[in-house]
Specification:
This protein is α/β, with parallel strands linked by helices. The protein folds into two domains: 181 residues, Orthogonal Bundle (Hypothetical protein af1432); 142 residues, Rossmann fold. It is built from 19 helices and seven strands.
């Protein structure tokens, strides 16, 4: 999912040559999510430097002093700088202090990805952030700890390959190095050794600076669906027809995309079914979803290509649908649509049955943009 960054994009407050000056206090005043880190405690063993905001300051300072960061093109510098600012934003809502005084922030990277995406989507950085930059930042936040902890994964190889499909592992390693240097701990030499091993493994797997290549889309699809993935296994492609799974917020333009690209294929639409069955979107949706799945099964049994049209904004919602389609030897094509928030809200307000701004904003906080671990092919259609 590595979309090319726009060459002319640069954060106005990202440190620049020749002085590389940083006004972090000014950024704290400007952005609520930085202020939210102030006073959030951390484990004193791994973070003796203090709270999350102190750590973030040290990480940013370590990053902008790094020669490798300074040598990057402006857009990549800006993306990494933004990711350093946001890398621990999830700790503001996940940090807990146990009865014994132990500080934990379980799931802070995944939560941080969602918070970063929502903040950049709805507020930007005092101006709009292009989709490719927004997603690069959000994914760097999601994976920022991986280079330091990948050896603890059930399959380190798979973890490194997975990250390469959504972020550049060399940039991820640079962020992780700044994360390690921006703390006070006794195990820093061990952290830096793990980081070196991450770079070595990514290089050996041919995915340090680019996504890992697979022999085919189907080989990649099977690899990430396997409990015991084998990178060298080339499965027979038994797919027989294509199912398109659409994903995107209400009002983003899924119906328009279908009219322009559906080629007359049948459409299983949850919105259409709700109207047909007289079910309000705020009511329980079990009957609607079950009816949609039955209609899909009828098409799947016939080997009939079709489109599934619903928001499908989380991986948890998409996975059982993909499992269903794959069980009938369908080739899954995932199409995710994105647009600036103000565009989505304007379109929704013009609909005969608007969803409402509060509902859209609530859904936005849950969005997990699809990646190539989920389907045979992925299309990211982003406006603005």
């Amino acid at each position: 999912m590595l979309n090319a960054l726009p060459e002319n994009w640069e954060l106005p407050f990202c440190p620049k040559p020749p002085g590389w000056t940083l006004d972090l206090d000014g950024l704290v005043e400007q952005f609520w999510w930085l202020r939210a880190m102030d006073g959030v405690p951390q484990d004193p063993v791994h973070h003796a430097e203090g709270d999350v905001l102190i750590h973030t300051r040290m990480v940013v300072e370590a990053l902008i002093a790094h020669p490798a960061w300074r040598d990057l093109p402006p857009a990549e510098r800006s993306v990494l700088f933004a990711a350093a600012l946001l890398h621990d934003v999830g700790k503001s809502t996940t940090t807990k202090v146990g009865p014994d005084g132990q500080v934990t922030a379980e799931g802070h990277a995944r939560q941080g990805e969602r918070m970063a995406r929502t903040a950049l989507w709805s507020e930007g950085f005092g101006g709009p952030v292009p989709f490719a930059c927004r997603e690069a930042i959000a994914r760097l936040v999601r994976y920022h700890g991986l280079p330091l902890w990948f050896l603890h994964k059930p399959s380190p190889e798979r973890a490194v390959i997975e990250s390469s499909l959504t972020v550049r592992n060399d940039l991820l390693a640079l962020l992780a190095e700044a994360d390690a240097l921006g703390r006070r701990c006794t195990d820093l030499p061990d952290l830096l050794l793990r980081l070196d091993l991450f770079r070595v493994m990514a290089r050996e797997l041919d995915c340090l600076t680019a996504p890992r290549r697979f022999p085919s889309d189907h080989a990649r699809f099977v690899y990430f669906r396997s409990d015991t993935p084998d990178l060298h296994y080339v499965p027979y492609d038994d797919t027989k027809f294509e199912v398109v799974l659409l994903s995107g917020l209400p009002g983003v333009g899924k119906d328009t995309w279908i009219r322009q690209n559906g080629n007359g294929c049948p459409v299983v639409s949850l919105d259409a079914l709700r109207r047909e069955m007289g079910v309000d979107p705020e009511d329980a949706q079990g009957t609607v979803v079950n009816t949609a799945k039955e209609r899909a099964r009828a098409l799947l049994r016939e080997g009939q290509p079709f489109l599934w049209n619903a928001t499908n904004v989380t991986r948890q919602i998409r996975k059982p649908l993909i499992d269903l389609f794959a069980g009938y030897h369908a080739r899954i094509r995932l199409v995710y649509l994105d647009a600036p928030l103000e565009v989505i809200l304007q379109r929704d307000s013009r609909r005969a049955r608007p969803v409402s701004e509060p509902v859209i904003r609530k859904l936005m906080q849950k969005v997990e943009v699809p990646d190539l671990t989920e389907a045979h092919t992925l299309e990211l259609v982003a406006e603005g």
